[in-house]
Design brief:
CATH superfamily of the largest domain: Transferase(Phosphotransferase) domain 1
Number of domains: 2
Largest sheet: 6 strands, antiparallel
Strand order of the largest sheet: 1-2-3-4-8-7
Shape: globular
Number of strands: 11
Order of helices and strands: EEEEEEHEEEHHEEHHHHHH
Structural class: alpha+beta
CATH architecture of the largest domain: Orthogonal Bundle
CATH topology of the largest domain: Transferase(Phosphotransferase), domain 1
Oligomer: single chain
Radius of gyration: 20 Å
Low-confidence stretches: 305-326
């Protein structure tokens, strides 16, 4: 089913006590807006609007959903709402803070705290443009924070299911924040096999491609490893289907062997194992590796640049290949 181009809500619109300022990101699953609450605090509002199921024309507020699409649209609506409610219970420095969620215009909105910074995707691209890459110490520190956030998510019986550099946000102090959970869209996939998959090739674990394979913490662990791979190689991880035909990741691991410690390279290799049982089975086990001092200091071939200041919530879609959904 072809995706449709949905018009965003108009700038200046008042909705549930919030004033829309502008659209800041969009994808196949949702639209994200910068807005202000009644006290003048900036927030990010994510609107459930799957482009394969609903169409909103310019000047309209309520999306049009055809009768055949309505059952699946409502399933996704319920899952999106439940996901927002579950996330609202999580208060952790490395997980986006959901401060409110509400229904309006026959869809659902999730209100999140807005913070200044930029995505890891943007940071990798900026370093790549300068012929540089992230150093081992920065990768260890960054992904220890990512694992801390994912560990809290898993402790709350949730999965992220869309971890990638575009969904790892770097505050101005360099600390990571997990954005854009994918559990609701995965539920839509299971209930609507006719829809295009809502995951990002390269960062999606093999089990996301099948319908009879169990998902679990190991699914997010694959994606964390793929994100680390992107930081270390400055390249897009190959999709799992391509890896089954010819796995080129080993050649990349060989190229970076002198730039990073053997422990770090081996952990990333294990995280990206096609067999879920061959991966680390918890993010806690990953944190133990990340927090330990490397036995052999790496010799970096390029200097690392510290994260630069940037505007808030930028780069949610872009350079690292096709984004299947947001």
């Amino acid at each position: 089913m072809a995706a449709q181009n949905n018009a965003p809500l108009p700038d200046g619109l008042e909705i549930a006590g919030y004033r829309i300022v502008k659209k800041i990101a969009s994808g196949g699953f949702s639209i994200v807006y910068l807005a202000y609450d009644a006290e003048g605090n900036a927030v990010a509002i994510k609107e459930y609007l799957p482009s394969q199921l609903a169409l909103r024309a310019p000047g309209e507020l309520i999306p049009v959903v055809s009768k055949p699409n309505l059952p699946v649209f409502r399933i996704g609506l319920k899952c999106f709402f439940e996901e927002g409610r579950a996330l609202a219970r999580i208060v952790h420095p490395n997980v986006v803070r959901v401060v409110n969620f509400f229904r309006a215009h026959e869809t659902v909105y999730m209100v999140m705290a807005y913070e200044s910074g930029h995505t890891l995707q943007d940071h990798i691209a900026r370093l790549h443009a300068k012929g540089s890459r992230m150093g081992e110490a920065s990768i260890r520190q960054l992904f220890n924070g990512v694992c801390a956030g994912v560990r809290e998510v898993h402790a709350n019986k949730l999965l992220h299911l869309d971890l990638k550099p575009a969904n790892i946000y770097l505050r101005v102090d360099g600390s990571p924040l997990l954005l854009d959970f994918g559990a609701a869209r995965q539920t839509i996939n299971l209930d609507a096999p006719m829809l295009a998959p809502m995951y990002t090739p390269g960062f999606a674990a093999p089990e996301l491609y099948g319908r009879a394979i169990a998902l679990g913490p190991w699914t997010d662990i694959y994606s964390i490893g793929a994100a680390m791979y992107a930081c270390m190689t400055r390249s897009m991880p190959p999709p799992v289907e391509a890896r089954k035909d010819e796995d080129r990741t080993e050649a990349q691991f060989a190229r970076i062997a002198g730039s990073y410690s053997p422990e770090l390279v081996e952990m990333v290799r294990a995280c990206m194992a096609l067999d879920p049982l061959s991966r680390p089975q918890s993010v806690f086990s990953m944190q133990k590796v990340l927090q330990a001092a490397p036995t052999l200091a790496p010799q970096l071939d390029a200097a690392e640049e510290a994260p630069a200041r940037a505007g808030g919530w930028r780069g949610l879609v872009g350079r690292f290949g096709r984004k299947a959904s947001n």
